Amino acid sequence: MESLKMNSIPERLSARYKGTFAYFTIRDRLPVTLTRVIDGLSRKISKLKAEHNEDVAEDAIGIISKLSKLRNEMQTNKEIPELNDEFEDLPIWNNYLRNADQLQESERPLKWFTASWLFTECYMYRGIFSAIMARQFLKSYDPYEEQKQQSFRPEDNIYPSVIQLAMNAGRSAEKFSQLLQFSLWGNMFDLSLFGNVDVSTKLTTQLETIKSNILSNDDRQIYSSLEYRWHNVPTNQRRIDFVLDNIGPEFLFDLCLAEYLYRNNMANQIYFHVKSIPWFVSDVMLKDFFWQVETMKVAHNCPVISELGRKVHQYIQDGVWQIVEDSFWTTCHDYNDMRTIAPDLYNSLEKSSLVILKGDLNYRKLIGDRNWPHTYPFKQALRSFRPAPLAALRTIKADLVVGLADGVSDELSKQDSNWMTCGKYGLIQFCDSKLLANSEMDASR
Ligand SMILES: O=P(O)(O)OC[C@@]1(O)O[C@H](CO)[C@@H](O)[C@@H]1O
Ligand SMILES: [Mn+2]
């Protein structure tokens, strides 16, 4: 990985480079995602026809036709067309398609195997939504809802010990770090990873065994930043924001981290940012947030899950925990663009003591989905996105990363060429400084 000349910005990942995860995603993974959505609709048609719901079945047939066209255009590297629907973010998408500046896209017109991966992958999910929302009867259909709801099983006994930790532990760097780690690994949480453990000691032992897979761990800096605010900032100014990722185990462990912070007065207000449309299959929408909390509340065979569900419900009712939607999170823009594309959102985040961004796609957008040297400093890769202290909790699932110590990336590449896409490694990275001084910010453009 060559070092970066001062102020030069590396280009964005793209499927134009064979052998990259972007290429594999556009060639293989996204067509499979489209096919799964089409198959789900085909099963729906059979059911609708059996129920003599011909009109609704017609809607599903219409969506299938559009998605089949989308899949064919992707697989034959066609020019990506402007969108045509009534959703609020339409101008943002079509402006991007018409005017993507040279810094974002290196050639025009935008095509599936040459445009930036961030744009093409986000466009596919937005294109699926566009085909659905255009219909009369199925406009609110969420093609991933069944999968999302199957990912949360209250009976999985991994949850009680983490919830008890969240509901009982006092303010301590160690307990905070454990809850950060559960929130991190929830991003690639695999129950087979922890098996059917039923005691917290074994669980925290498990955390210890995989802690070395956290390749960059700023947990102590994050805790110190919160401690500083605890001693120096009035209680009513301790807002913490979660930019959520996936429903299921990840979301539950995010709620555990939030409960720990709130109960220990390290936050007096918590904001949860959810997606406005069905996104990257498992991302949490407002309806999914309520579904999982309601499901937790009635998990009577697991009292602690039910207790946490009732607490979260009450916090939302009292307004001390808020769920916010903004369509910026489901555009193709990276976070360096937020100040210009969604200034109100940026201004809101500026009021936060800590913005916790979960998962791989959020990380990609934080660093512009660019091919930075792996040792490039995290805070520099953020460029002008610094509304507040930021923490990224990400299991590495795409072939880009920053902020690693010298030699780490080379060593891991020797061990396993797929180390960046296997989901085994994670990052807890932190940037405390708010907005750069103008001069520095200009330099980072
Ligand atoms: O954001 P998440 O849920 O952690 O992961 C999003 C993801 O599944 O989609 C992209 C590849 O298709 C990658 O960013 C990553 O693998
Ligand atoms: Mn996701």
From TrEMBL:
Q: Which BP terms from GO are recorded?
A: DNA damage response; intracellular phosphate ion homeostasis; methylation
Q: Which organism is it from?
A: Trichoplax adhaerens
- Where do the Damage-control phosphatase ARMT1-like metal-binding domain residues begin and end? 25-410
InterPro entries xref list: ARMT-1-like_metal-bd_sf, ARMT1, ARMT1-like_metal-bd
Family, per entry = Belongs to the damage-control phosphatase family. Sugar phosphate phosphatase III subfamily.
Q: What does this protein do?
A: Metal-dependent phosphatase that shows phosphatase activity against several substrates, including fructose-1-phosphate and fructose-6-phosphate. Its preference for fructose-1-phosphate, a strong glycating agent that causes DNA damage rather than a canonical yeast metabolite, suggests a damage-control function in hexose phosphate metabolism. Has also been shown to have O-methyltransferase activity that methylates glutamate residues of target proteins to form gamma-glutamyl methyl ester residues. Possibly methylates PCNA, suggesting it is involved in the DNA damage response.
State the domain notes. Answer: Subfamily III proteins have a conserved RTxK motif about 40-50 residues from the C-terminus; the threonine may be replaced by serine or cysteine.
**Domain of life the protein comes from:** Eukaryota
This entry's Enzyme Commission designation comes to 2.1.1.-, 3.1.3.-
Q: Where, by residue number, does the polypeptide cross the bilayer? A: none
Q: What is this protein called?
A: Sugar phosphate phosphatase
Entry's Pfam families?
ARMT1-like_dom
GO terms assigned for molecular function: fructose 6-phosphate aldolase activity; fructose-1-phosphatase activity; metal ion binding; phosphatase activity; protein-glutamate O-methyltransferase activity; pyrophosphatase activity
Q: Which cofactor does it need?
A: Mn(2+); Ni(2+)
Catalysed reactions, as listed in the record: beta-D-fructose 6-phosphate = dihydroxyacetone + D-glyceraldehyde 3-phosphate; beta-D-fructose 1-phosphate + H2O = D-fructose + phosphate; L-glutamyl-[protein] + S-adenosyl-L-methionine = [protein]-L-glutamate 5-O-methyl ester + S-adenosyl-L-homocysteine
| Alphabetical UniProt keywords | Hydrolase, Manganese, Metal-binding, Methyltransferase, Nickel, Transferase
Which ranges of the sequence are coiled-coil? none
